Amino acid sequence: MGASKPSFVAVALWVLLGSLLYGAGASEGSLFYGADASNITVVGGDQGWTFGFNYTDWALKSGPFYLGDTLVFKYDPPNGTNHPHSVYLLRDLNSFQSCDLKRALLVGNVMQGGGKGFYFTLGLRTTHYFVCGEKQGFHCNQGLMKFSIKPLKRPCHH
Ligand SMILES: *[C@@H]1O[C@H](CO)[C@@H](O)[C@H](O)[C@H]1NC(C)=O
Ligand SMILES: *[C@@H]1O[C@H](CO)[C@@H](O)[C@H](O)[C@H]1NC(C)=O
Ligand SMILES: *[C@@H]1O[C@H](CO)[C@@H](O)[C@H](O)[C@H]1NC(C)=O
């Protein structure tokens, strides 16, 4: 597995970098993709990021998603009585299907979903495998807190 690990790390870095760059530019409209060319979508809509909601279904019905679009994950930080959530990116389809969190990349910790939520901008044209990482994959497996998105290149309007 020596060969695949560095490329995942590289992808992970690009995802983070893309997220930072595009995230930072999101409110200025679209430096990178042209005028009014990005959407901000709250994952799960009114339900937010929560146990038992079918995010596969949500993603199917909410797409397509384009490069530069932003996802917002909303979940309450731990408060002593709730079940905290988080956002991880998994490395491939296999780990996604089995909710295997080994070598997953943490992108939003249990604190980051509060308030206005955790913002993630789709900056790379690869399939993004989003899952909740809590309870060793139980939220992902049994709670349906998983979905994948492959952002499309936004069609040019000229
Ligand atoms: C934003 O999302 C809405 C609803 O899915 C869609 O109708 C609209 O075309 C999208 N806008 C852009 C710029 O992608
Ligand atoms: C979630 O939604 C997907 C896509 O609509 C569907 O195939 C799947 O059966 C649903 N899962 C559950 C547990 O309802
Ligand atoms: C803790 O958060 C949950 C939602 O995640 C909320 O329903 C509950 O009221 C909160 N409890 C306290 C003590 O703030």
TrEMBL record:
Domain Phytocyanin, which positions? 39-153
State a single Pfam family of this protein. Answer: Cu_bind_like
Q: What keywords are assigned to this protein?
A: Signal
Looking at the record's lineage, which domain of life comes first? Eukaryota
MF terms per GO, please? electron transfer activity
Signal peptide (from-to)? 1-26
User: Which protein, by its recorded name, is this?
Assistant: Phytocyanin domain-containing protein
Taxonomy of the source species: Eukaryota, Viridiplantae, Streptophyta, Embryophyta, Tracheophyta
